[in-house]
Design brief:
Layout: E1 2-7, E2 11-17, E3 23-30, H1 36-54, E4 59-64, E5 67-68, E6 75-76, H2 88-96, E7 100-104, H3 105-116, E8 124-130, E9 134-140, E10 143-145, H4 181-185, H5 187-198, H6 204-212, H7 216-240, E11 244-248, H8 257-268, E12 278-280, H9 287-293
Parallel strand pairs: 1-4, 4-7, 8-11, 11-12
Antiparallel strand pairs: 1-2, 2-3, 5-6, 8-9, 9-10
Helix pairs in contact: 1-2, 3-9, 5-7, 6-7, 7-8
Length: 308
């Protein structure tokens, strides 16, 4: 049995999977607001609840915002700031009395979809999260590629490619730079574009709904969003050339992306033809927690075949 934990900013979710990927049990609790130790306790309580409910123990994998620094062994780059500078994997292992595998939540998302999701036919999979932030993860033959500095796939903190008039230097990013892809393609980035055009504030999901209902300004905002997303993904294709790109996060629910993006990406990529499939996540919001569970060895069967 594999237990996955998705450590989010507002909730902590736990899942237990059998060897075939079948969900045995799922639980979630609000993320404690009273500090790091409370988060450790909440994770331990969820693992205990799962194991008591099923009457057996399991391996534990954790998806979290940020990553373990290769230099210090401590959490870095996390928007859950109480985790920064903490030995989260070691503290959890001590509390649970067993080894714990921990990975960035975008990497877990990509792993989930590569193992038994929409990208299971791809040898090289690039997973994209489009939501409150913009994350990315690389999976090769069902193994997460973390990179030497454990930042592989972090496209959200590169500059927006082929910047157009008015896009440079761009809005400030929490990372300390300006004009990062995340500032354009996150939910707040789409909301900022709509506010600049209309003077009105709407969350990203409502902008997408307004566009579908015929709101001309909302539709224009989505056209701009798609153009920026296509340019950003074309840069990924030029560098990585993955077999499949899988989208997750709240903005991945904009269905027109899947019909318009492939041609738009191809227009910017450095090739005479691009046929990279861009697909929607099969497991939706559950991909992160499932990927955390799959951090322990997935089924030994090879990928089912080449992407098409």
């Amino acid at each position: 049995m594999r237990i996955g934990i998705d450590l989010g900013g507002t909730k902590i979710e736990a899942i237990a999977l059998d060897d075939d990927g079948r969900t045995l049990l799922r639980r979630r609790v609000p993320t404690p607001a009273d500090g790091y130790r409370a988060i450790l306790d909440a994770v331990a309580d969820l693992v205990s609840l799962i194991e008591k409910g099923l009457g057996r123990t399991g391996t534990v994998g954790v998806a979290c915002p940020g990553a373990i620094s290769a230099a210090t062994g401590l959490i870095k780059n996390s928007n859950t700031t109480v985790l920064i500078g903490k030995p989260l994997d070691r503290d959890l292992a001590s509390k649970l009395g067993r080894p714990v595998r921990l990975e960035n939540d975008a990497n877990c998302f990509a792993l989930s979809e590569a193992v038994d999701g929409s990208a299971s036919r791809g040898h090289v999979v690039y997973g994209v999260i489009l939501g409150t932030g913009v994350g990315g993860g690389i999976v090769i033959d069902r193994q997460v590629l973390t990179g030497r500095n454990r930042i592989a796939g972090e496209w959200g903190h590169n500059p927006l490619p082929w910047a157009r008039d008015g896009e440079s230097p761009g809005a400030p990013c929490y990372c300390g730079k300006s004009g990062c892809i995340e500032t354009f393609l996150s939910g707040s980035g789409l909301s900022r574009e709509y506010r600049a055009r209309t003077g009105r504030s709407l969350p990203a999901e409502e902008i997408a709904q307004a566009a579908g209902a015929g709101d001309g300004e909302a539709r224009k905002c989505l056209e701009v969003f798609q153009d920026r997303l296509a340019r950003s993904l074309a840069a990924v294709v030029n560098m990585l050339d993955p077999d499949m790109i899988v989208l997750g996060g709240g903005l991945s629910n904009i269905m027109q992306l899947y019909t318009t993006l492939p041609e738009m990406v191809a227009a910017h990529a450095f090739s005479d033809a691009i046929d990279t499939p861009i697909v929607r996540a099969a497991h939706g919001d559950s991909s992160g927690v499932r990927g955390a569970a799959w951090l322990w060895p997935p089924p030994s069967a090879a990928c089912a075949g080449d992407a098409s």
